[in-house]
Amino acid sequence: MDGWTAPSAIERELYEAKARGDWPRFLDALARSELFLPQHRAEVDADPGQARFHPAGATLAVYTRGMLPAPDQHTVYLRQSLAWFANAWDDRDPAYLAVNPGCPAEAYLTTRPEDRARWRAHWDAAPSWGLAADAVHALHTGGPLHGPVAHGLAVGGHLAVTNGDFWNALAYHGGGYTRERERLRKSWDITDGAGWLDTLQRLLDTGMVSPVWEYALRVRRALASDFAGPVDGEHWRHAAEAGLRRSAELAAEPRLTPDGVTLAQPRPAAEVEGEIAGVRRLIGRIARYEQRFRADGLLPEDGWVRSVEAWDLGRASQMARWGVGARYGTVEEAERAVLRAGEAARGTYRSWEDFSAGYVLGRCLHFDEEEFGEWYTGALTAHRLLTTDQASPWLNIPWR
After folding, report:
1. Cα Dmax for the chain
2. Which of 91, 141, 143, 229 gives 20 to 30 Å between its CA and that of 246?
3. To the nearest whole number, what is the mean pLDDT of the chain?
4. What 3-state class would DSSP assign to 262?
5. What mean pLDDT is predicted for residues 14-42?
6. Which of 208, 34, 59 is nearest to 126 (CA)?
7. Helices marked H in the chain
């Protein structure tokens, strides 16, 4: 069909192979693709380990990732491979496997034993399966490419690249219903809609970033504003220490309340000194990360990180979508959340690069322990792709 825009590179390759009548190439592409099988949600909830065939006459429909319809509360999708279908099929099952029915890239594959053997052969020869991790993937239709919603989705670019997801999938299915639920349970201890919403709100409010990290960075921002230039490390430490001592003194001063004057107990000196020592160590740690960031091009030569709120906001943008895939939230709720994430990011940062440095520092402070291992190198790879790949939203969506 002239003028048809394939949702993603997956469907485009299938369409082109079909248009040429090149069925071996079609099966090559299909063997590399995730195939999503529609299921009744109630059945999956009752028995998550069982995938069921629900044929329509002589056909069983499956969909590639870009062709999945908008999520609803009654139908969910399980991700399978072409080899899985070849092995699960028997002679009582439908005569045709319908791939992406109803679109120009549709195909109806016969399911005789010799056909299924051919599927397995193409699967065995496939060099990979599914969307590659550490790459920029986009929906060309079915996901926003420009505007405020696209901006909010692009705030989650780091995780989309690292995990091998479409960066602009708002009507999100991810790896399928059961896998998305398992991701939230294992990584976030989320098992229901209330838990998802609570976590999402805390991320949007940047309430999961350490207040100590933000305190240290806020002190430096104030100094940089006051002195209109770079801040010496020792000056930064002294200012942070002075702020902590003043805070401890204020906490010990008497306060006037409706019940009269309340005498506060001063904090133990050892506690205050321990807090000061910890912040001084943290400042040294941040400075060393920033030195590495400059060497690797994540920061400019004289650059520094304004805030680590980006780490929460980037995760919030993805959390909104993960909730849709797990059916803990709706597409409408996800859209409101990604809009908030984009607005908050613009309020704190000055550019995509500025935002990215904050995200990477937050991730490293939480996970990396100055090892500069995969928690750092993975984030650096995503940063480089998002700032150089011509398909990246960061090169196509203005920061403001």
Report:
1. 88
2. 229
3. 94
4. strand
5. 97
6. 34
7. 9-19, 23-31, 41-46, 82-88, 113-125, 148-154, 157-163, 177-188, 193-204, 211-227, 233-252, 269-295, 309-325, 331-348, 352-367, 374-388
Q: What is the Cα–Cα distance from 255 to 174, expressed in whole angstroms?
A: 53
| CA dist list (Å): 395 to 154, 155, 157, 301 | 10, 13, 12, 21
CA distances from 314 to 151, 355, 378, 382 (A): 11, 9, 15, 13
| CA separation for the pair 130, 123 (Å, rounded) | 12
- Phi/psi for 211 (5° steps) reads -65, -25
Residue with tokens 């005498």: 263
Residues 44 and 76 sit within 8 Å (Cβ to Cβ): yes
Bridge partners (DSSP) of residue 77 are 38
Residue range 94-129, pLDDT digits in tens: 999 999 999 999 999 999 999 999 999 999 999 999
Q: How far apart are CA 364 and CA 352, in angstroms?
A: 18
- Concatenate the DSSP letters of all residues of 62-91 into one string: EB-GGGPPPP-SSEEEEEE-HHHHHHH--T
H or E stretch covering 98: strand 96-99
Cα separation, 1 vs 4, whole angstroms: 6
Please report where in the chains the tokens 């002195």 appear, as a residue.
227
Mean pLDDT on 145-171: 98
Q: What is the mean pLDDT of residues 215-220?
A: 96
> How far apart, in whole angstroms, are the C-alpha atoms of residue 368 and residue 380?
13
Which residue, 33, 126, 39, 31, is CA-closest to 83? 31
pLDDT above 60 (res 255):
no
Q: Where along the chain do its domains lie? A: 9-125, 148-209+309-395, 211-295
Q: Is the dihedral of CA 160, 153, 166, 63 positive or negative?
A: positive
First to last CA, the chain: 38
Give 96's strand partners: 59, 110
